[in-house]
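Final report, Chapter 2: Outcomes

The project's central promise was a pipeline that accepts a single protein chain and returns its three-dimensional structure in a standardized token representation, suitable for archiving and comparison. That pipeline is now operational. To close this chapter, we reproduce one record exactly as it appears in the project archive, with the input sequence first and the structure output second.
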Amino acid sequence: MEKVAVVTGTSSGIGFETALALAREGYYTYATMRDTTKGDKLKELASKENLKIDVLELDVDNENSAKTAIKHILDQKQRIDVLVNNAGWALWGCVEDVSVDEFKTQFETNFFSIIRLIQEVGPTMRNQGSGTIVNISSVVGRIGFPASPAYISSKFALEGLSESLRFEFAPFGVDVIIIEPGVIKTNFMKNMKMAKKSELDTVYKDITTKVVSGVKMMAEMGTPPKEVANVIVRAIKDKNPLPRYIVGNDAAMFLEAKKNKTDIEFENYLKKELY
């Protein structure tokens, strides 16, 4: 029986590498993205390596697009074994510099779109009695710091959702896994946006600039997307998957420090690390 995987946000980075990794493991992989003209590299590699990869249009922010894509997949394959919710982006700016509408836009992609896809795929996995949902969170899904509250809040929300889903889906044989990468080495600027007001000379401009600069420096030595993809594949193959998998030395370092320090000690530690 051919197993089927669906990966969102596959035009680059983690999604790109995960689509390839799953196809190399024998999955018929639907590599979804908003703009399929960005899928040429995936198609080229799939042809070269004889991989079963189907580049498919899916705009995670659009309900009709999500429904259409999942229906297309089920019409073709009648099953979905793996869903990797990877599509996302980061908004920079302190709370007062980020409008409520900008917060909503951040959550639409990073949180609500994931609920939308799980609601589309969940019934199929339940009826199969098997399946794995992988939600790409971040180390900041468990650690807050300044200048990116919209992004961080969306990842905290995703972690809570994922923990709840583990309980809800477990009786039906469906696993839910959280992946927590640190700073990713490539495409840092591509998936980052500045809140409109944060680009002005506000009282928070200095702290935002310092934090963004600090994270940029970390990105130069960050975790390669391929390493994240390898962990995703390993997690899917685990007989009893863990609730979460940490990826990257920086992520492990921050979470270990958080575990071993008091809240105040950890705040002071973060200040030194970030700026």
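Archive annotation: The chain has a mean pLDDT of 95.
This record, like all others produced under the grant, will remain available to the consortium after the project formally closes.
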